[in-house]
Write a structure and sequence with these properties.
Layout lengths: L12 E6 L1 H5 L3 H11 L2 E8 L3 H7 L9 H9 L3 E7 L3 H9 L12 H5 L12 E3 L3 H11 L1 H4 L3
Antiparallel strand pairs: 1-3, 1-4, 2-3
Bound molecules: 2'-deoxyadenosine-5'-diphosphate and magnesium ion.
Length: about 150
C-alpha cells in the first residue's frame, strides 16, 4: 500500500467526527455534503469504532466533568466517521456549520439545528464534533490520523 500524502502544514485543518448517533442514522452523507458544498476539502476519512483510551484522550479537557463518563461511553459504543477537513479559517467555519452544543437550541440551518434533537438520554447526542481551536485541531488530528502528520 502506498503511504498516504501527509497534510500540507501551511494549510489550515480541523477534525470532524460524525458521532455514533449521526453515523447510525445514516447522516454521514448529509454532513459531508454540507462541508463540501461550503467549499472545504476532505483530506482524510475513516469509519472507526473508537476505544475508550482514544476518547479519554480526545476529550481530556472534560475529564472530571459530570458528563464525561456518559460521553466516553456513548462515543465508544458504536462506529463513527472521522474526517480531516482543509480550508482557510476551516476551524471556525466548521464550528459555524455545526451550531451550538445543545441540539435543541442549535439554530436552524446548522447541522445540529437541522439534524439533531434531544432523544431523552442521559448523554448529549449532537451528530458532529469539530475542533474548537488551532491547538485542539493539531492535537486531535495527530490522535485520529497519525498517518497524515508523521512518517511511520
Ligand atoms: P462541543 O462538542 O460543542 O465542542 P464541548 O466541547 O463543550 O462541546 O463538549 C463536548 C461534548 O460533551 C458535547 O458535544 C456534548 C457533551 N457535553 C458538553 N456539555 C455537556 C453537558 N453540560 N451535559 C452533558 N453533555 C455535555
Ligand atoms: Mg468541544
Amino acid at each position: 500500500m502506498p503511504t498516504p500524502d501527509l497534510l500540507d502544514s501551511h494549510k489550515e485543518h480541523t477534525l470532524v467526527l460524525i458521532k455514533p448517533d449521526g453515523f447510525a442514522r445514516g447522516l454521514t452523507g448529509e454532513v459531508l455534503r454540507r462541508i463540501e458544498a461550503k467549499g472545504y476539502v476532505l483530506k482524510g476519512l475513516k469509519i472507526k469504532q473508537a476505544s475508550r483510551e482514544l476518547l479519554e484522550e480526545h476529550y481530556a479537557e472534560h475529564r472530571g466533568q459530570h458528563f464525561f463518563e456518559g460521553l466516553v461511553q456513548f462515543m465508544s459504543s458504536a462506529p463513527l466517521v472521522a474526517v480531516v477537513v482543509e480550508g482557510d479559517r476551516v476551524i471556525e467555519g466548521i464550528r459555524t456549520l455545526m451550531g451550538t452544543t445543545n441540539p435543541t437550541l442549535a439554530a436552524p440551518g446548522t447541522i445540529r439545528g437541522d439534524l439533531g434533537r434531544d432523544w431523552g438520554r442521559s448523554y448529549v447526542e449532537n451528530v458532529v464534533h469539530g475542533s474548537d481551536s488551532p491547538t485542539s485541531a493539531e492535537r486531535e488530528i495527530a490522535l485520529w490520523f497519525p498517518e497524515l502528520v508523521e512518517r511511520s
